[in-house]
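hey so i finally got around to running the thing on that chain from the lab meeting. sorry it took forever, my laptop kept dying and i had to restart like 3 times. anyway pasting the input first so we r on the same page abt which one it is
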Amino acid sequence: MAVNITRFHNVFLYQSRAPVPELLRDLAVLGGLDAHAERQLGSLTMGAWLSVIPGGVLALLSYGIWAGSVNADDELSEQAILLLKLGFFFGVLLLAVGLLLFVRRDRLKPRDLDNRRYGLARVLLQRLQVDLAPDAPVRLKLDLRQPDVREKRVRQDMVGWWNTEFFVDPWFLLETRLADGTFLRIRMVEKHQKRERHKTNARGKTKRILKLKGFARLEVALRVKPERHPGLGALKGQATNATRLPPRVELERVRVAADRLSLRVRLAKDWVAQARQASADPEVPSIWTEALGKDDASRTATMMLLSLYQVVHYARRRGKQRAARARRQSV
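ok and heres what got predicted. didnt touch it at all, straight out
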């Protein structure tokens, strides 16, 4: 499925059911659109400031010189007044151009996508590809809108002195059937709070204070055939003990039933799609070093899947052993 760029720029939603190579090509297109938007926004920001600052200085300078000459003993010549008028007009024109560029930049901001979102989808698809049958379809849904759009706001209330907006953002869903017949589902939901209040200092000046809080919930679930995994519903304790997670990631919920099991964890708001490996090189950019200390969503999802598969394999192996004993006793 090729990405319809015009439609995507209207809704910023991606949904497809296709083999992994096709999905990866679509994600590469989304990455290209995002990179183009980042370059465009950077150019608009630079152009806006290069227009607003000189324009404002020129307009104020021209007006100041003219205003100062009104009460002066020596009047300006007609040529000087004409130059001041032209300078003031040109300064106002630059200001207007700069403001239009700022408006244009604000309208294009939604095109600057969160790199982590399509990056997480790309990493997980690449890792799952080895466990999928050739041409196995994968259902992928990505909501790449900003997390604080009106459609994602669930309520608005006062929290202490703060006027707070609550947002729920179920932006990621991946579903597929693995080569062994197990059905896999990976979901991520982010919850955000936007808190705002106004504070007046001792001089009577009112200041607007804005705080953003949030976290992410990542869930990995498997659905299996109960006849091949007898007694799976009684293995919640084993599933909890078998769960292995990266440091700082909090296990929130373990669910086990006769035909399915799932894990749900909590990640920090500043999670990353894939953390880079540590490097001893002192010239490595600090932003890469900081990313190493953040929750790695792709690694977390992989470890959750492996933890669930330990329980699935245990139930399957125990079922085979019981069947073998039953056959021996019947002989």
